[in-house]
């Protein structure tokens, strides 16, 4: 059936002049679209489509509602997703022969490699504007050269031909990521840092003195270069982590009440409020404002660092913590309609998918979502 034939049948349907033969043709078209579509709207979007179309197509005979409208709703969902549009005639809003198209909502794309480097002199560099052939900057009277490698990773190279005075007044740089951004960096001592979205790390261009100290806001995964004579310290909200050389993840967002440190290998000492604990691989510490104790538990370490490996992975995660991850990665706003405090998620998906695909995975836990622009409404 071509477009003009379809429009003619819909016009007849609206006028109440659709014959049984034409009705069968229209039903067959709907069923064909349903059979050949691999996608569908969720329940809330389908209901919205149904109610919207129903309001625009006043029926002459009420008995037609039962037999045909369920398929109209199905067709609307299929047409919206396929991007072909669903056509309808509205007597009250437009001329009799006018046609309006309900378009497919715009997809919300995932984040990517985006970062801003702030130098010691205050200059800010948008890293997406830099190529791997460029020298980003020179610091400490050219003792340090800042480059980008072929993989887009920021690296600090110490110039062996310039005398190092082991001075204490280091120059500090800050790497920060926006909403929907992540970035990797190799510090001057060889430590690798993977920075998650809406995060920042402040660090010296050289590690002089007897300690290696960095400051973190947000989330980062560290692969610390071993140096038993110079401990590596990560300072974040309400806690300090001390290591000699190991792999661990720190989750320390300002808008979350708990700072989580997850150890993958080696050992780390977590200090907070005059308390101190040593973590073993597979353990996670929890430091919160409302407690003077450092909580420790066994966790799925793969879930803690899934973001670094390009995945969302949920291990009995509560809904609001899951949605905060999506807010930071997709730049969305989340609103809740009803109590969702007892909803938990297990499983996951990839971070390079559009938001609609991620929400479909979450809906398997009987949570419903409605997308309104960049706002996601959550229904229990």
Number of helices: 7
Overall geometry? elongated
Low-confidence residue ranges: 37-47, 50-96, 98-102
Radius of gyration: 28 Å
Characterize the main sheet: 19 strands, mixed
Per DSSP E runs of 2 or more residues, the count of β-strands stands at 26
Gap between N and C termini, in Å? 40 Å
Helix content: 10-25%
Mean pLDDT over the residues:
81
By secondary-structure content and strand pairing, the structural class works out as: alpha+beta
Strand content: 25-35%
Could you walk me through the main structural features you see in this protein, from its secondary elements to its overall organization?
By secondary structure, the chain is of the alpha+beta class. The protein has a 19-stranded mixed sheet that branches. Strands 23-26-25 form a 3-stranded mixed sheet. Strands 1-2 form a two-stranded antiparallel sheet. The chain is built from 7 helices and 26 strands. Helix 2 (20-36) packs parallel to helix 4 (64-82) and helix 3 (43-56) crosses helix 4 (64-82).
Secondary-structure map:
Blueprint: H1 3-15, H2 20-36, H3 43-56, H4 64-82, E1 87-88, E2 100-101, E3 112-113, E4 116-118, E5 124-126, E6 135-139, E7 144-148, E8 154-158, E9 172-176, E10 181-186, E11 192-195, E12 200-204, E13 212-223, E14 232-236, E15 239-243, E16 247-252, E17 258-265, E18 268-272, E19 275-279, E20 283-288, E21 295-298, H5 301-304, E22 311-318, H6 319-330, E23 333-336, E24 344-350, H7 355-362, E25 368-372, E26 375-379
Parallel strand pairs: 3-10, 8-10, 13-14, 23-26
Antiparallel strand pairs: 1-2, 4-5, 4-9, 6-7, 7-8, 9-12, 10-11, 11-13, 12-13, 13-16, 14-15, 15-18, 16-17, 17-20, 18-19, 20-21, 22-24, 25-26
């Amino acid at each position: 059936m071509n477009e003009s034939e379809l429009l003619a049948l819909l016009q007849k349907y609206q006028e109440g002049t659709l014959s049984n033969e034409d009705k069968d043709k229209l039903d067959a078209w709907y069923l064909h679209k349903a059979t050949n579509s691999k996608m569908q709207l969720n329940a809330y979007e389908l209901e919205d489509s149904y109610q919207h179309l129903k309001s625009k197509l006043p029926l002459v005979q009420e008995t037609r509602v039962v037999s045909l409208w369920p398929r109209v709703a199905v067709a609307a969902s299929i047409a919206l997703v396929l991007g072909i549009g669903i056509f309808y005639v509205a007597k009250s809003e437009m001329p009799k022969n006018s046609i309006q198209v309900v378009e497919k909502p715009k997809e919300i794309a995932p984040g990517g490699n985006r970062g801003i480097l702030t130098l010691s002199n205050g200059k800010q560099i948008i890293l997406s504007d830099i190529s791997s052939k460029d020298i980003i900057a020179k610091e400490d009277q050219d003792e340090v050269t800042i480059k980008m490698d072929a993989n887009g990773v920021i690296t600090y190279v110490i110039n062996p031909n310039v005398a190092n005075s082991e001075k204490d007044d280091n120059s500090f740089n800050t790497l920060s990521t926006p909403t929907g951004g992540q970035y990797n960096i190799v510090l001057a001592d060889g430590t690798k840092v993977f920075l998650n979205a809406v995060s920042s790390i402040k660090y010296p261009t050289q590690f002089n003195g007897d300690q290696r100290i960095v400051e973190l806001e947000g989330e980062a995964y560290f692969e610390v270069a071993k140096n038993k004579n110079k401990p590596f310290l990560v300072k974040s909200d309400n806690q300090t982590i001390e290591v000699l050389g190991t792999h661990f993840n720190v989750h320390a967002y300002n808008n979350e009440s708990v700072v989580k440190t997850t150890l993958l290998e080696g050992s780390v000492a977590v200090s907070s409020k005059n308390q101190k604990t040593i973590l073993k691989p597979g353990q996670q510490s929890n430091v919160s404002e409302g407690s003077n104790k450092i909580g420790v538990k066994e966790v799925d370490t793969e879930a803690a660092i899934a973001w670094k490996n390009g995945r969302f992975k949920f291990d009995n995660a509560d809904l609001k913590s899951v949605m905060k991850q999506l807010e930071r990665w997709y730049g969305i706003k989340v609103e809740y309609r009803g109590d969702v405090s007892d909803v938990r998620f297990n499983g996951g998906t990839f971070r390079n998918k559009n938001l609609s695909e991620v929400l479909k995975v979450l809906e398997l836990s009987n949570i419903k979502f409605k997308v309104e622009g960049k706002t996601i409404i959550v229904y229990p």
